[in-house]
Amino acid sequence: MSVLQRFEKRLENLVEGTFAKVFRGVVHPVEIASAMQREAEAHKAILAGGRTLVPNRYVIDLSPYDHSRLAPYAAALAQELAQTQAEFIGEQGWTVYGDVIVEIERGEGLDTGMFRVTAEVYTGGQQPEPAQQGYDQQQQYQQGPPPGAPAPGPEAYSTSGPPAPPMQQQTPNARMVSNDGRQFALAIGSTIIGRGEQAQLRLADVGISRRHARLDFDGTRVVLTDLGSTNGTVVNGQRISAVALRPGDVVQFGTTSLTFHVDG
Question: 181 vs 166, 175, 256, CA distance in Å?
């Protein structure tokens, strides 16, 4: 089942069997999700180390009529769109700065059935210039004035988890060394550890979850966070939820041990 098919299925559950009635005559959420995917594809940036950064904040402007019709479902719809976009980005193996955020706004001047997607890399502080495209339900281009970028409000949702610095460069200073001698240099930013395809540091261990833990490296320190793994994450014999690593710390994932090293 594709990302969009899963999204549509969740929408059906969201509106409890009134799916067709609720979305008849208004812009369809699946079209919005498709447009968000195209925005991510269109605004990829290649980082050092070969990783691909895409926008993580998406502002959806709906026509006044569509906005009023979907208002009772706006918060839940924003949540589902954020989850779907995060799944899509993960399946592509792309990187985002922190969380995926979706905001649904009222777009004055848009005709019924029209909507506008504004995508940007949102850092929580300075906001880069947004990249904007507009679509109607037939995917035709709709030119419109750039909307503002307000902070998330009642109709905004972000995927859970603390923001992480962007991965900008590869550095040999911080690394994880396995008990069989393999070395994994850490990039500045976030590194997912697990056995799934979305993990940047993949370990072939059945005791490790697909997304087991995350390493956040800001250039000076590395913070290890367990991502709700089945078997947990252990540092120096103690199970942890999040901890700043020190040189020489031994981290256990399943039956795999990694030792944290800092050169220099």
Answer: 28, 12, 12
Q: What distance in Å separates the CA atoms of residue 52 and residue 121, rounded to the nearest whole number?
A: 12
The structure's pTM equals 0.50
How do residues 83-135 score in pLDDT, each as one tens digit? 899 889 988 889 888 788 888 888 888 888 888 898 888 765 444 444 444 44
Residue 97 is which amino acid? Y
Task: Report helix angle 3-14 to 29-42, nearest 10.
Answer: 150
Question: Per 3-state DSSP, what percentage of the chain is helix, strand, and coil (rounded to 5)?
Answer: 25, 35, 45
End-to-end alpha-carbon separation of the chain, Å?
A: 48
The whole-number pLDDT of residue 234 equals 94
**Within 13 Å of residue 93, how many CA atoms lie on the same side as its CB?**
9
Longest Cα–Cα distance of the chain, Å, equals 64
Q: Which residues contact 68 (CB under 8 A, 6 or more apart)?
A: none
Alpha helices in the chain (DSSP H): 3-14, 19-23, 29-42, 64-70, 74-92
As a three-state string, the secondary structure of 22-70 is HHCCCCCHHHHHHHHHHHHHHCCEECCCCCEECCCEEEEEECHHHHHHH
Please list, in sequence order, all residues whose beta carbon lies within 8 angstroms of the beta carbon of residue 189, skipping any fewer than 6 positions away: 95, 164, 165, 166, 167, 168, 216, 217
